[in-house]
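ok here's SSD domain-containing protein:
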Amino acid sequence: MASFLYRLGRFAFRRRWSVTAVWLAVLGAALIGALTLSGPTQESFSIPGTPAQKAIDLLAERFPQASADGATARVVFAAPAAKTLSDPAYRQAIETAVADLKQAPQVASVNDPFTSGAVNPAGTIGFAQASFQVPSDDLTDGARDAVTAVVDQARASGLTVEVGGDALEPPANMGVGEIIGVIVAAVVLLITFGSLVAAGLPLLTAILGIGIGIGAITMLSGFVDLSSKTPILALMLGLAVAIDYALFIVSRYRHELAAGHEPHEAVGRAVGTAGSAVVFAGLTVIIALAALTVVGIPFLAQMGLAAAFTVAVAVVIALTLLPALLGFAGRRILGKRFRDPRLPARPASAPAGPARSPAARWPHC
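and the structure:
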């Protein structure tokens, strides 16, 4: 394994333009596929074989109007102090809100709080629940806007109105948290290495890796139903392991350069030694994530396989693209202090001189 990785690292170093061009082409293909072939992700999920899932399937079969797997919106009404919901003005406002909810797009049914008994004994708080014909990820913006408009109209009557349920939950998106994570990683790497180039290479390869992985997963969503959480888990794990694996090889490469080896030899030695640890660590993570398919829960299997694919991409990039980028960086990967031409280079393998006794060292003290 070490000999193969040594040759692979030297090959990627020598053919760095070709290797980089291939990976950029793969990234472009993944992004184009994600933009043109992707489909909507799913917020809802099922766990086959469980009693709850059997009940939902039975309701959907025998009472489809119940929309057992559809989205819900629960609108809670609270009367002002010293007032009750039964006061004519407030009751009229609630009945109008219920009627408007029934006319909203994609609504299957709405429970009136007065007829369904959803009012507390004091008559000050009650709720109406709207059931939709489709899961929350299939709701249109018009349906959500209609619920918001009903709530605003009921508030205008003097009632305190709040709404909950998965119908108004925003779709899961990758955003600020991941960006903050990248910035923190950049600061830590910069402090550790003391070089912008050394700190930037692990981040660059990580971003390319998760771009390919997330692009491929997003493209796959056009052919199979994927959970909205699947790309997020793949992104987090892919980013973490990609930086970690690149850090191993970059650290070893800097060590080999400091030992006096030429860059092409340093890359081969770095990939041959640290690359072996990257391969076995990556295989361990991939096997663990792929094992989620054993539990028999579809959305967990999807998440595990997608994350395992992203980890596999991170491993291959660390073994091929990173050596090519190290070829472009050369000795700039070292900090300015280590590149100072006034400092003599340490030889790669200096023979150990004869041991000097304390008596021999005494005249030099």
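+1. The domain at 62-168 is CATH 3.30.70.1320 (Alpha-Beta Plaits).
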